[in-house]
Structure formats: structure tokens, C-alpha cells
Design brief:
Layout: H1 3-7, E1 15-18, E2 30-33, E3 47-51, H2 62-75, E4 79-83, H3 92-101, E5 104-108, H4 114-125, H5 141-152, H6 157-166, E6 174-177, E7 182-185, H7 194-202, E8 207-211, E9 221-225, H8 233-269, H9 275-284, E10 293-300, H10 306-317, E11 325-329, E12 335-340, H11 346-358, E13 366-370, H12 380-397, E14 403-406, H13 413-418, H14 422-433, H15 442-456, H16 461-468, H17 472-486, H18 493-504
Parallel strand pairs: 2-3, 3-4, 4-5, 13-14
Antiparallel strand pairs: 1-5, 6-7, 6-9, 8-9, 10-12, 10-13, 11-12
């Protein structure tokens, strides 16, 4: 198979970003998926490289992309297939680096999984993976046969890891989630805390391979082997492929659970829901019909993909195994989790995890909202309303920064107003401040600034005059003019609060 053959497969939707003749005509010997900054040791001559670009950040120097592409060229890679999902598009610095180093660059849309590309290559090159000639494998035939039987029997990841590495003397190996949570480990591998696992993914030592799946960056699995002395790279890649097949087999069950979560969320989002239907929906999601419950919402900035937000919430809540939960999606890109059990310090753990979770998808700040604890199913709608309000406050307070906001944290007028829809804040501000919001008038802007200083200095004429470098009489004149324009009396506390709230809503 040649690089240009991949571009001809309409089902993949690939786009050639750079590749002068005769580069697209080069033959493909295999496929490697990696998000390491320097993947040289795991590459073979003639391979195409799949990368989700998790290793790159918009604030990075151009040299970082250049080093990555240079490593591909040195290893003899025939093309780089870069995923668009993480950053929305393939960065220009990567296009420039590929042009400089003569490496064909192809964009992979978010709708196309790396697994689909891998299968397309292998099916074209060697036929179905199960019929691949023996000499193409690094794993011994007896190990492959055993793993095939285990996959068919629905074996768990711990069993698959154990048997896959047994012929190598069972070295320490881990299957890690996107946030470093241990999903499985070989018997010889010591326990690994989630923070330590996350550190291994950020600054990999040994070998770390991404397990291909159709999920978002929050739902990625990684095979991590701290010491690769006795584990050849191609063996690790084949073990990673076995784990990918396991994910593929379990995906239908996960999708079914997500649909049940959608049904539950749809019910609790309605103001009035039949109690019997709600209890049946809770049971369908594996939850009891008695509390306490808590509702949590999440949404990445500038994203309408509720599935990605649901993946983020699911991964976060798996760090608290003592509390069962169900996750569903709302229209508009918001994911909702219904969590059962006493919260304890769950919110504190979730808040500590939030920056790690946000790092799974650079450039798409993850916002979250936490509703109050409720005693029974009848309170779930109220908790959802609170969680959505807290989510809106989170997005309004710091749009570009990851943030988790709970109802317990909405203790100030500013935080309360931040939860209002933007359209409501704009109308309230414009109607209350009136002509002071006219950006075209210098006099109005001056009056608006005077009002801000006047309220900030607790209506002290002397301190306002000092802050504005004005005579007190001038301050009196301006305040009277503000009162005329707004219809408010600044000697009254309630009127001052109206204007203060309007300023906060701008």
C-alpha cells in the first residue's frame, strides 16, 4: 500500500496538507500511533505515523514541532497523519516543519478514528489481521492464539496484560487512563497512584503507547511499560493492538450505557417528571431510587460536543469508585452526571483532578458545575438547575481557564450574577445604566468611570475626588448627572446595588 492510496479512501476523509511528488507514492510498511515528543525508537522504516498532537501546545516554540518531524524523517517515516480533534486543526507550524523536512503531512478529521486508518492499512497490505502471515508478527503464535481466545471470552484487561507479557517474564506494565488512573497492571507491577500515573504520561520514561479507540482525548488509554529492556517495540505495539480490540469489543456496551444516561438526564431536565419513570430510569443506569444524589455538569469551552464532555465527566468520576454514577448528554454540548452516595470530600478530589483532566485536551478549557446534594429522586431537577447555573458562572468568570464551580461557592453578588445567561446580563446592564453604556460618547464614558469609582470608594466624596483628581464640587455635579441619566438615587442603598449589579454584568 502507498500513501496516496490512503488519500483515495473516501470513508477516511483524509486531507493532504503537504506532500510534493513523488512523496505520496512511497510504500507503507506499517503503522505507528504515538503522542511522544520523540518517537524515534518505536518507529520502523516506511511506516506512517498517527499522532493526536497531544504533545504540542499553541504556546510552544516552533522548534518543538520541527524536532518531532525531524525525528520522523530520521526514522524513515513515509508520512505523518495528524489528528484535528485535539486542536481543531493541524497547526501551521507543523505544516511548515513537514515542508522543511520533506515529510508528507495528512490531516485526519475528528470523525475518523486512528483505528480505522490502521485497519485500512493492514487490510490492504496483509488482509484481515486474523489471517496475517506468521512472519509479520512479533508475538509468538501460541501467545497470539491464547489472546484471541481470551478476547473472544470477554477477558478483562488485567488478564490480557498478564498473558500478553507472560512470555517476557511478566515485566511491570500498566494500562493507564488519560488522567493516569490505573485500569490494569501485570502481577509484578507495584500499585501506581493516579498523580504518579499522570506524571508518567506527561514525562514518559520507558515506553508509553496510545491505545486506539473512537473516544475523545478524555477517554484515551495508554500502555505504559517503565522498563523496556526485555520488551521489543513491535511486541509492545501488538499488545497495544490486542487492548484496542478489547476496547472495540466493549464499545457497544458503553454506548448502550450512555444512551440510558441520556434518557435519565432528559427526564430530570423536565420540571415535572413521572416518579415511576424516573425510578425506572435510575434502575436502568444501575442506581438506586434512594439518595443522596448530586448532579454535576461539564462542558469544554467553545465546544458543542456533549460526547467529549461526557467522556471527561466519566473519567473524572471513575476516580471516586465508592460513588456509582450515570452520565448523559444535553443539547448544546453539556454533559450531566447523576452521582449517588454521600459526597464526603468528593468535590475536593474532583477539584484537584480538574487541571489534569483539562490537560487532556489543550486549548479547550473544561468548565464544570456542581449542584447541591439532594435526598431523593424528586430533588434531581433542582440539583441539575443549580449545576447548570454553576456551569454558566464558571464559563462567564474565566472563559479561557479550566474551572469547577459549585453552588456552595456562589456566595457573592458577582458569582451569583455570573450564572445568569449572557443575554440576560447584557439586557439588565443596558436597561439599568441607560445612556452611560453609549460607547460613542466621551461624556458618557467619563460618567460611567465616575460611577465605578464612586461605588468602589463607598460613596465617599472626598476619596472619590482624590482618586479622580477632581474638585469635590465636580464630583457632586457628575453624580447628580448620573442620577438624572439612570433614574437612580445614589443616596439609597437599593439603587446603589442596582447600579453595582449592572456594572458587574457588563
Amino acid at each position: 500500500m502507498h500513501v496516496e492510496h490512503l488519500l483515495q479512501l473516501e470513508s477516511l476523509g483524509l486531507t493532504l496538507l503537504w506532500g510534493e511528488e513523488p512523496l505520496p507514492a512511497r510504500e507503507i510498511s506499517g503503522v505507528t500511533a504515538t503522542d511522544l515528543e520523540d518517537p524515534t525508537r518505536f518507529l520502523q522504516q516506511g511506516e506512517v505515523v498517527l499522532s493526536g498532537l497531544v504533545w504540542w501546545h499553541p504556546n510552544d516554540e516552533p522548534e518543538k514541532a520541527a524536532r518531532f518531524v525531524s525525528a520522523l524523517r530520521t526514522a524513515g517515516a513515509v508520512a505523518l497523519l495528524a489528528g484535528e480533534e485535539t486542536h481543531g486543526a493541524v497547526p501551521d507550524v507543523l505544516v511548515d516543519a513537514c515542508r522543511t523536512h520533506g515529510v508528507t503531512l495528512i490531516a485526519v478529521p475528528a470523525s475518523t478514528s486512528f483505528r480505522a486508518i490502521t485497519e485500512a492499512v493492514y487490510l490492504r497490505h496483509w488482509g484481515d489481521l486474523s489471517r496475517r502471515p506468521t512472519h509479520h508478527y512479533a508475538l509468538p503464535e501460541n501467545v497470539r492464539n491464547e489472546l484471541s481466545v481470551l478476547l473472544a471470552a470477554g477477558a478483562d484487561p488485567d488478564t490480557l496484560l498478564d498473558r500478553a507479557f507472560a512470555h517476557l517474564g511478566t515485566p511491570a506494565a500498566y494500562l493507564l487512563s488519560a488522567t493516569g488512573r490505573t485500569l490494569a497492571r501485570t502481577p509484578s507491577a507495584p500499585p501506581l497512584t493516579a498523580p504518579r500515573g499522570a506524571e508518567c504520561l506527561r514525562r514518559p520514561t520507558g515506553a508509553t503507547l496510545r491505545i486506539e479507540s473512537d473516544g475523545s482525548p478524555y477517554d484515551v488509554w495508554h500502555l505504559h511499560v517503565p522498563d523496556t529492556a526485555g520488551a521489543p517495540p513491535r511486541v509492545l505495539h501488538e499488545i497495544a493492538d490486542v487492548l484496542a480490540q478489547h476496547r472495540h469489543r466493549t464499545a457497544p456496551g458503553e454506548k448502550a450505557a450512555r444512551r440510558k444516561g441520556d434518557d435519565l438526564v432528559s427526564l430530570i431536565s423536565a420540571p415535572h417528571t413521572d416518579g415511576t419513570s424516573l425510578r425506572l430510569a435510575l434502575h436502568g443506569c444501575g442506581l438506586f431510587d434512594r439518595g443522596p444524589y448530586q448532579v454535576i455538569t461539564a462542558r469544554p469551552a467553545h465546544e458543542d460536543d456533549a460526547s467529549a464532555a461526557a467522556d471527561a465527566l466519566t473519567e473524572a468520576l471513575h476516580h471516586d469508585p465508592g460513588r456509582p454514577f450515570a452520565v448523559g448528554r444535553l443539547a448544546g454540548g453539556t454533559a450531566v452526571a447523576v452521582v449517588q452516595g454521600e459526597p464526603g470530600d468528593s468535590e475536593g478530589r474532583l477539584r484537584a483532578l480538574w487541571p489534569v483532566l483539562d490537560g487532556c485536551r489543550p486549548g479547550a478549557a473544561l468548565h464544570g458545575g456542581v449542584g447541591a446534594e439532594v435526598a431523593g429522586p424528586e430533588g434531581l431537577h433542582g440539583s441539575l438547575v443549580q449545576a447548570r447555573y454553576a456551569l454558566t458562572a464558571s464559563r462567564a468568570t474565566e472563559p479561557a481557564a479550566a474551572r469547577l464551580t459549585s453552588m456552595d461557592g456562589l456566595t457573592t453578588l458577582h458569582s451569583l450574577l455570573a450564572g445568569l445567561p449572557e443575554e440576560v446580563r447584557e439586557v439588565f446592564s443596558a436597561r439599568t445604566l441607560g445612556p452611560l453604556t453609549d460607547e460613542d460618547g466621551a461624556s458618557q464614558r467619563m460618567m460611567l468611570h465616575t460611577l465605578e469609582v464612586f461605588l468602589a470608594h463607598n460613596c465617599s466624596w472626598a476619596r472619590v475626588a482624590e482618586a479622580l483628581h477632581l474638585h469635590v464640587n465636580t464630583v457632586h455635579y457628575r453624580v447628580r448627572r448620573i442620577e438624572q441619566l439612570t433614574g437612580r438615587d445614589l443616596s439609597r442603598l437599593d439603587h446603589r446595588l442596582d447600579l453595582q449589579a449592572a456594572l458587574m454584568c457588563r
